[in-house]
Amino acid sequence: MAELDKDCLFCKIIRGEVPSYTIFENDDVKAFLDLSQVNPGHTLMVPKKHIANFFDYTADDAQRFLKYIPAIANAIKNYDPKITGMNISTNNGASANQVVMHSHIHFVPRFEGDGLKIVTRNNEANYTEADYQKIAEQIKAQF
């Protein structure tokens, strides 16, 4: 496990220095219950390589670590027949509310009437066709 950081909380969990409620683990990833339990079964999946967030992933990292998302999501969904959906998300960077700077994916089971609100906003009225085109072209240029 040479690719782990000595001071990172999730690296400590991977090494077994901090206890966790592990639901899945192999040579590539570890998935464990988030102590906040936004809803029952709320799980985090982390790569067993210290990567700060998706901005630092290589194509090989993505192929190696992200392939487990469907299996973990389905295992969580299948543990409780009342689960009717799931938010699968990641926060990349402090401005996006990333708290632990080790890449992780949240799996938040959803239940009918659970009251959990994911807040977004619609700014469509603030954009013209020219605005959309300019943004799209600027992003395309990054590939």
From TrEMBL:
Coiled coil: none annotated. CDD domains: HINT_subgroup. A motif (Histidine triad motif) lies at residues 102-106. Pfam families: HIT (PF01230). Residues 9-117 form the HIT domain. InterPro entries: HINT, Histidine_triad_CS, Histidine_triad_HIT, HIT-like, HIT-like_sf. Transmembrane segments: none annotated. This is HIT family protein. It comes from Lactobacillus panisapium.
